[in-house]
Automatic annotation (TrEMBL):
The keyword Metal-binding does not apply. The modification 4-aspartylphosphate is found at residue 54. Residues 144-373 form the Sigma-54 factor interaction domain. Keywords: ATP-binding, DNA-binding, Nucleotide-binding, Phosphoprotein, Transcription, Transcription regulation, Two-component regulatory system. SMART domains: AAA, REC. One of its GO terms (cellular component) is protein-DNA complex. PANTHER family: ALGINATE BIOSYNTHESIS TRANSCRIPTIONAL REGULATORY PROTEIN ALGB, TRANSCRIPTIONAL REGULATORY PROTEIN. It comes from Geobacter sulfurreducens (strain ATCC 51573 / DSM 12127 / PCA). This is Sigma-54-dependent transcriptional response regulator.
Length: 470
C-alpha cells in the first residue's frame, strides 16, 4: 500500500500512542503532536494524507485546528475524536469540514475503517484538484504581477484563506508587498464591501497606538478632549491590518491578545466592553520566533497570529518575474507621464538582472519611475537607472552599494545571512542524519526547542521528506 503520512493530535499521550500502534500495524506512517499549535507548525512545513485530532485540548482546540487545516491543506481529510460525544459538536465539526467524528472509547476496527473511508475520499478530491490545475494556472492575481512558482504559492494561499475569517500573518522583507497581500485577502473575502483599515505600528508612540486601536473616553487622559472611536471599531465588519506588528510593546500585545480571544474592546478610560466583528491581518519584516525567544514578543500572541502564515519571497528569489514587473512598471509610468518609452537598452536590462534589489519590488518600482523621467529617448539607458554599482573591493550584495542607513542595515543583514547559511545547513543536516531524520530527537540533541528547529529548517528551505528520499 501507499505509505500515507498520518498526523495524530491529542494532548493525552495514551491516545496518541494507541493510535500510532493501531495505524502503523496497518502500514501507515504516523507522526504525533501533543498540541494544536505544534500540529499547525508541522502542517505549514509538511504534507499529510490524513489528520486525526482530539476536539477538547488546552490552548488551541481541535475545532480551531480543523478550521486552519481547511485553509492550509484543504484536500486533507480530518477525523475528530472526543470523549464529549454530542450531536451538536458532531454537526459543528462536519459543518467546518471534518470528514467524520468518532467518540472515545473506540476499537481498532472502528478507527481503521474511518481512516480507510477518509483516504478514499481524499483520492477523489486530489483527482479533482489535479484536473482544475490542468485547466489553468494563475499568471498574476488581484493587483499582483508575477507568475513564478514562488508567487503561485502566495496566490494559492490568498485564495484559500480569503473566504474564511482566520487570522493571517504576512511575513517578508520590506518592499515585498505585504499590504498588497492584506488587501487581496480582504478584496476576495465576504468582507470586501466593508472597511479595510491599515495601521502602521511603527508610526505612533505606545500611548497613541493604544488610543488609535481601542479608542478613548473624553477626559480619560490629558489631551483627550473628546471621545474617540478606536480603529478596531472603525473596521467593524471588515478587515484590520496591523503592519509591522513586531514593534508594539508587551503591554499592547497583552491587550491585543485579549481582543483576539474575547472579540471585544474596552476604550481607554471606559468600563463597558464593546463587541467587534473584524478579520485581523498582521505583517512583519522580522522573525517573530526569534523575538519570542528573546522575550520581546509574547508566545501566546504569536500562536494566535500565526494561524495562517503567508511568506512573501524577496525579489532576488523570484527573478523569473523581473521582466514582467519591469514591463508592468514601464507601461504604468509611461502612461502616467505621457512618455513613449519602448523598453530598456540591453546593458540597462543586464544591469537590473544582476542587481540584488535589497528594497525588493518597491525599489524596482522607484528605479523604473525615475528612469522613465530621466530617459531622453524612447529607450531607457543604463545611466538612466542611476544604480550605484560597487567595484570588486566595495561590493555588497549583488554589486549594490547602499545609499542610506536603512539600506545599509538591510544589506549587512543579507550578507550575514548568506555567510552563516552554509554552516547552518550543515548543522541541521548532520543533526538529522545522526537521529535518523527525526526532527524531535534532532532538536533535543542540539539543545533547541522543536518549533525553533523547524523554523530553521523552513528558513533554509530543507524538506526532511525530500532529504530522506534523496
Amino acid at each position: 500500500m501507499e505509505n500515507i503520512d498520518v498526523l495524530v493530535v491529542d494532548d493525552e499521550a495514551i491516545i496518541r500512542e494507541g493510535l500510532r500502534r493501531i495505524l502503523e500495524k496497518e502500514g501507515y506512517h504516523v507522526e504525533t503532536s501533543a498540541s494544536g499549535q505544534i500540529a499547525l507548525e508541522r502542517l505549514q512545513d509538511e504534507n499529510y494524507g490524513l489528520v486525526i485530532t482530539d476536539l477538547k485540548m488546552p490552548g488551541m482546540s481541535g475545532m480551531e485546528v480543523l478550521k486552519a487545516i481547511k485553509v492550509l491543506q484543504p484536500e486533507v481529510p480530518v477525523i475528530i475524536i472526543t470523549g464529549f460525544s454530542t450531536v451538536d459538536t458532531a454537526v459543528e465539526a462536519m459543518k467546518n469540514g471534518a470528514f467524520d467524528y468518532i467518540a472515545k472509547p473506540f476499537t481498532p476496527d472502528q478507527i481503521t475503517e474511518k481512516v480507510r473511508k477518509a483516504l478514499e475520499q481524499r483520492a477523489v478530491l486530489l483527482e479533482n484538484i489535479f484536473l482544475k490545475k490542468e485547466l489553468g494556472e494563475h499568471h498574476g492575481f488581484d493587483i499582483f504581477v508575477g507568475e513564478s512558482k514562488e508567487m503561485q504559492k502566495v496566490y494559492r494561499r490568498i485564495i484559500q484563506v480569503a473566504p474564511t475569517d482566520s487570522t493571517v500573518l504576512i511575513t517578508g522583507e520590506s518592499g515585498t508587498g505585504k499590504e498588497l497581500v492584506a488587501r487581496a485577502v480582504h478584496n476576495n473575502s465576504h468582507r470586501r464591501d466593508n472597511p479595510f483599515v491599515a495601521v502602521d505600528c511603527t508610526s505612533l508612540a505606545e500611548n497613541l497606538l493604544e488610543s488609535e486601536l481601542f479608542g478613548h473616553i473624553k477626559g480619560s487622559f490629558t489631551g483627550a478632549i473628546q471621545t474617540k472611536t478606536g480603529l478596531f471599531k472603525v473596521a467593524d465588519g471588515g478587515t484590520l491590518f496591523l503592519d509591522e506588528i513586531s514593534n508594539i510593546s508587551l503591554t499592547t500585545q497583552a491587550k491585543l491578545l485579549r481582543v483576539l480571544q474575547e472579540r471585544e474592546i474596552t476604550p481607554i478610560g471606559g468600563t463597558q466592553p464593546i463587541p467587534i466583528d473584524i478579520r485581523l491581518v498582521a505583517a512583519t519584516n522580522k522573525n517573530l520566533r526569534t523575538l519570542v525567544s528573546q522575550g520581546t514578543f509574547r508566545e501566546d500572541l504569536f500562536f494566535r497570529l500565526n494561524i495562517i502564515p503567508i511568506d512573501l519571497p524577496p525579489l532576488r528569489e523570484r527573478k523569473g518575474d523581473l521582466h514582467l514587473l519591469i514591463g508592468h512598471f514601464l507601461a504604468t509610468f509611461s502612461e502616467e507621464m505621457g512618455r513613449d518609452i519602448r523598453g530598456l537598452a540591453p546593458d540597462a536590462l543586464a544591469l537590473l538582472e544582476d542587481y540584488a534589489f535589497p528594497g525588493n519590488v518597491r525599489e524596482l518600482e522607484n528605479i523604473i519611475e525615475r528612469a522613465v523621467v530621466l530617459a531622453e529617448g524612447d529607450l531607457i539607458q543604463k545611466e538612466d537607472l542611476e544604480l550605484r554599482v560597487a567595484t570588486d573591493s566595495q561590493a555588497g550584495v549583488g554589486g549594490y552599494v547602499p545609499q542610506n542607513v536603512e539600506e545599509l542595515k538591510e544589506t549587512k543583514r543579507q550578507i550575514r545571512e548568506r555567510a552563516v547559511e552554509p554552516i547552518e545547513k550543515a548543522f541541521v543536516l548532520q543533526a538529522l542524519k545522526r537521529n535518523n531524520w527525526n526532527i524531535t530527537r534532532a532538536a533535543e540533541e542540539t539543545g533547541m526547542l522543536r518549533p525553533n528547529f523547524q523554523a530553521l529548517l523552513k528558513k533554509l528551505r530543507i524538506s526532511v521528506r525530500n532529504q530522506m528520499t534523496n
